[in-house]
Amino acid sequence: MHRLLLAVAATALVLSACSSNDKPSADARTLHFWHFYSEPGQKAALKALVADFERTHSCTVELTELSWNDGKQKLQAAFNSGTPPDVVELGSDWIAQFSSAGVLMQLPSDSAGIAGFVPYSVAPGMWNSRVYAYPWTLDTRVLYANTDILAQCGVKLPITTMDELLAACRKVQDKGRQGFAANGADAHRLYKKILPFIWTLGGDVVDAQGNATLDAPVVQRAIAMYADLARTGFVETQRQLDASFIQGKVAFWISGQWILKKLRNNPSVHYQTMLMPGVNGQPGISFAGGEYLAVPNGSSRKQLARDFVRWMTDGTNAIRFCTKVDEAGFPADARFFDNKALTADADRAMFSQQLGHARMTPVHPQWLEIEAELERMVEEKLLESDK
Length: 387
Description:
D-Maltodextrin-Binding Protein, domain 2, 15 helices, disordered N terminus, alpha/beta
């Protein structure tokens, strides 16, 4: 049933994309760019960057903000109505659904196209060996530790293995404190926390033929390990757990760069960032997310839109945005992946190092269905842990 619904949605997108190309352009030098950076500091940095493109290309770029809560639905509605923007920002795990539906313009894949990007960032922008989106920025998650709680409970750092992490969390719990913060029911976020456990243990959720492997023993072991960690602390949404760690209520929490500023503004909480723990002498593998830029087929300004995508994803420009917006992460342009303008900060250097041991979600048109089922399985296991 889910596959049928997705196929119907994809067909609708293809049909609307075919009809929109016949519409004349009202202004050949005005681009419409839909993006997800809506906070004041983010908007200011983006506007400053876009202003340079406007000057050098004698054009106007109109910015429209989307939210992660309903942005995808708004994009689908725009495609279905034949009124998509000229350039869209897409999350790395969304692109396959749009590119497989035929609504995105194919982009160059030669040396002037994808050759300069971090290798693992390229695949999410491809479908059937063709490129439909360029990676703009990359980021990952690391392990945060409250050093005060750990010192009070007799836990020594660093933590380098999954076994050490579980032992440390249990020791904290035995001292009457909260060991590990675990995401519970939190759509589109929980899977980002369980995938690193699956990958670190050597598993995956999709095989080489594109079949879901959620019943594989290694997947079940990873979910059980996550539930064991959850028993030492508490289960909440990511937003609530970010707040709990910032308030000094839990020893360990896996999160991104977006909490660094608030942590540094709370001098009563002392923390340390660490790489994801591994197994069998191998490093832990974290989740890598990315923001991608694509040109809808319905754009009547395709060349200018393509120039904008190429300009924005060039590391020379992307790093200007990343240095102003911590949560943007790092340029996907490999020349700037570990640039000192970002890695001079010890915490950001840890994120850069973790990106060297990170993966992205599988490129699959039914990924959102696989994601939902994986999250359901984890939620069920966590509920068992509460009994």
